[in-house]
Amino acid sequence: MDAAIHCSLAPCQMEVQEKILDKFAPAAHAASDAAPVTVQSWAKKKNEGGLPYMTYRATCVRGGVFKNGKGEYDFNEGMLPVLSCSIPGVETIY
User: What are the residue ranges spanned by the domains of the chain?
Assistant: First the structure.
């Protein structure tokens, strides 16, 4: 039974290794190079298109997620396009 399980999982493990894990490290480096532009846009002054200071602070204090009467702010989700653009074919993996 163990051999059968191993045989059925081996192709899945290889697929995950090739399509996700092998590409993640280079993608993380590419995303870290692109991330400052996104982060700097949040930290700009309000009249320059950034978030109001207290909203920015509240979002930072709450692990990157904050919701108020004016909207929902999710810095983690905001970084997703930066990372997903760095992994070729990420849409087809999931």
Answer: 2-93
